Batch of 3 targets.
Target 1
Amino acid sequence: MKLVEELEEKSASSSRSKIDLVGVDEDLLQLKDRLTNMERKVKIIPIVGMGGIGKSTLARNLYDDAYIVSHFDYRSWAVISQVPNMREIMLSLLRGLDEKVSNELIGRGDYELREILHKRLFGRRYIVVLDDIWSTKLWDEIRMYFPDSNNGSRIVITTRESDVAEHVAGSERLHHVQLLDEVVSRDLLCQIVFGEEDCPSELQEVAAKIGSDCSGLPLAIHVIGGLLSKVERSREVWENLSTDVKASIVQSDEHFSNILSLIYSLETMFFVYESFS
């Protein structure tokens, strides 16, 4: 699944500005309410779902939302990953608003960084995002550095592992991100390819088929939509690509890996196509 992780990381890290989301308005409303409601005790909000479903993108849109920015005194974000590096995580959580780590912090020892984080958060209403947690061990090691000043602070985690989410969340409910339905998949694909323009009527049927064949995974739709935007906007070209998409996907636990393998094949084909056009 290394390919999935690399694409998810690129998707999350490239989105300091707001990312357009399709079909998740209700998710955003529910999560914003949980982040900003009147409960003063620090709350943990787990966003759970399979790889490529858009957990990090959803979290990033919340994190950069203007109301969320104004609501919290301090915001910090760290990508955890399968092989977490505690020092890098602490430095990420201590970054300034300019996304730079000061030389003074870089020179501090690991234990000092943890103390600094605790002191920086204490007494402030903070939102911390721990993106892509795989292990309960990591959470047990880091949780003590997030103080509860009874002021409405929030910790958001994203994970594909339900058992990790349940361990971290305790009694808090999990927020499961759902696969996109066929209509939303088509609309997202068309938005990526055409922007604010309408999808031509002769391409709507094949766009719906390609969107459906991406199995409701926003990451796959985003990447394939980006590639489609580079080729001729004709029914014949899109139908040929639709056949390739369908043929590459089997109904198994590896279906998303197959989609990603197809993406790299299509990128090569598009490069050849552009070279001779």
Note: Residues 2-176 form a domain with the Rossmann fold fold (CATH 3.40.50.300).
Target 2
Amino acid sequence: MAGGTIGPVGVSKERAKEYQGKVTPYVVMACLVAAIGGSIFGYDIGISGGVTSMDPFLEKFFPTVYHKKNSGSDSNYCKYDNQGLAAFTSSLYLAGLVASIVASPITRSYGRRASIICGGISFLVGAALNAAAVNIIMLILGRIMLGVGIGFGNQAVPLYLSEMAPAHLRGALNMMFQLATTLGIFTATMVNYGTERLQPWGWRLSLGLAAVPAVLMTVGGFFLPETPNNLLERGFPDEGRRVLEKIRGTSRVEAELADMDEASQLAMSIKHPFKNILEPRNRPQLVLAVFMPAFQILTGINSILFYAPVLFQSMGFKDRAALYSSVLTGAVLCGSTLISIATVDRVGRRALLISGGIQMIVCQVAVAVMLGMKLPDSGELSKDYSVVVVAVICLFVLAFGWSWGPLGWTVPSEIFPLETRSAGQSITVAVNLLFTFAIAQSFLSLLCSLKFGIFLFFAGWIALMTLFVGFFLPETKGVPIEEMILQWGKHWFWKKIVPPSPIDDDVSYGKP
């Protein structure tokens, strides 16, 4: 018990076999509305790279980059190397990092809905500022407000989805967040492809259309029910039972409610969740909350998604061809998420993460070899090699889309006990946004310095994270969220660290 107090110890036995209920239209609709928060995140990822490749935008805000791009005198890999341009993309994620920490106590004390609504409003303000920007200060201020929206949304939405979903379909429903993210990315690339023709104000439309998912998220948030887990945590047991019965479609919810009640009793006794998360019983979750989002970004996927048009132009593609290629990668990412949704609760998290990692390593090495052999410092790839490079990048995006893309969010959101769940999700989001900021700010410089070696750099990290999953991630498929704490005592490594729990040894959810 944190702080040496005497009191509840959380979920003490496994009741999963006693859970009743089914997937109701009510819970599906609630998850769909909440997942719109993912489309906000995805839209910004997809829109940034396209806007920063548009000449009118560069000429207005980054004239140095504009002249360097069109002079033809710089290396293919260095024509966009500018810290100011990188800051346009990365400032959002730095703001989101700070906002995700602020969002934790709000999410815990006022509910998941409150954070979802706050995120939607902040993003709406940011979209308006960006669309109307007349100078770099207004542009960056808009990006900061977008970051605040993403910080709140990414903190609350995955938690909301995990707590509302029934255990046997939690992976698929939780991935609504990632599916919405990929749909946002694809939508953004299509918008960029269209607005690039609308010179000189097309970039304003691209940035301003971010208001659409923001409005949907804000308005939808007012109609969402609060999760039963959070209602019990905040001291509303009758309302929590009512919501649980409604989303499960049955009044026979005693077993699941008992798990939630035990978890909420401990949660209410914890006054400082960020301190409690350092306790030995929460050590495995803390490690995964740091490493899973860090590794997700170190795959290099954000470099491709942020700067897809920039990256393809660096490889010698023309403006329209670069935008078309980024649309293709966005479509592949969106489609591959459907594969993950269909398989995650059947084959499990570990199998998808490991197989996806292996495929990504092969693709990153293949791109590095082709660019190293065929792309000169100036000039262009041949048409045949360009097609092959785009195809291999699409295979990389495909692997990410059914493995680390959705599961980098799903796994951390489902492993924490109730008393540290909002704090744990804040750490996950903060680490994700910290690494996203670092990659966004440094990628253009790294591309200039390492050239094709940038793909080998990311391949090395993917190899490391694939081994990490193989050794340290237990299978979480089908484990009720409030009983996840019992899994660590079964794992070959974590059982040496966490205190023993009173569990039924004959019950197992899968391989440790």
Note: Residues 13-496 form a domain with the Growth Hormone; Chain: A; fold (CATH 1.20.1250.20).
Target 3
Amino acid sequence: MAGGSQESHSHIQLSTTYDVFLSFRGEDTRKTFTNNLYTRLCQFGVNTFRDDDELRRGREIASELLKAIQESRISIIIFSENYASSRWCLDELVKIVECKEKTKQLVFPVFYYVDPSEVREQTGNFGKELERHEERFGLEKVETWRSALSEAYQDGIWKILQLIKDIKIPMTYFRPCESRFIQKIIEVILWELNRKYLDVAKYPIGIDSRVKHLYSLLFKRQDDVSFIGIYGAGGIGKTTIAKAIFNQIFQQFEGCCFLANVRAEASKKHDGLVTLQEELLCETLGSTNFIVDNVNSGVDLIKERLGSKKVLIVLDDVDHKSQLEPLAGARDWFGSGSQVIITTRDEILLNTMEVDEKYKATELNNDESLHLFSWHAFENPVPSRDYREISKDIVAYIGGLPSALIAMGSSLFGKHKPVWRSTFDKLKRFPRDEYWRKLR
């Protein structure tokens, strides 16, 4: 929706103070790998939190440390041989996993001289240390740590395997190549930090319920490429819904791109589609080096470079098949698990493209409409007492089209009541549908 109340949103992060939080066992890596990684991150302008307190001795994790985790965009967990020996590290890990669930914080595990299977299955030194902890802290506490270790392992699968493959050395013997390993981590972190959340709406009224409905249509085929369509009248909030779902899920993909205003961009000039193809490649691959000569070569590049990648692509405001085919012509253009979301006013277009699921964007209900109008007219979710009745009359006339409610509420902001009455009298001269058409 194009506006709304201050509803809670699962895709919205808490305010962040740090780009990266480093979780590590000081005795293992503080003066070697962690120090080198921290130095390089700072050199690249990445605001990084590193706890310099050497003294643990069984103390409870400090509140300022928990706050630092919560206010970081990314957590890098350096799993070294003795990581699990520290209750402090394990409590950090639990908090990191909690933040991942609540704020979609990105978790980036590094397995430093540790086989990832030891973290996944809690074997080797990890298993021994957890058994020792169980005697002191009890089964319930240790099970919480075990769950966090498994969760962190799952987050790190494709990332760490990709890094090891790129370096072309065995998993547990990368010390001679640590500088290259760190450089690769830096590249991935910088790429992730440059992936920004989209601005959804100043007042996102009604979005949560609609995003929840749309989310239920996604990921039905976990290993397949899915095409999802969002359709509805102009101004109904299709783009806003698409932005909100994009923010909620983009971190689950290896690459992502939100192509806004496809219809307008494609018709701007003779190479409009080529420009969109270049943007699609650059955004999903985190590069600025793609130059597409023509539409056909762009299609070949998209197939070649994205065919093995799990990507999220939103094609916003499409009105013709010719705009879709050069950008997302078929499912086999993209890697397993990819999602392509299309917004359009034309349901028939979605049928032509044989999308897997369709979602119809609907008008706001009466309460949502009044809240949205009030936020823009009064900067408050409800009208002031003197304006309550006329606000209800205006909203009842306009209906649940978000763009119309925003336009009218904004135009009346700060105006005296006679202006409101005059505006409403003029408004009533036009059928609602005609007002909507003029607005569009």
Note: The radius of gyration is 26 Å.
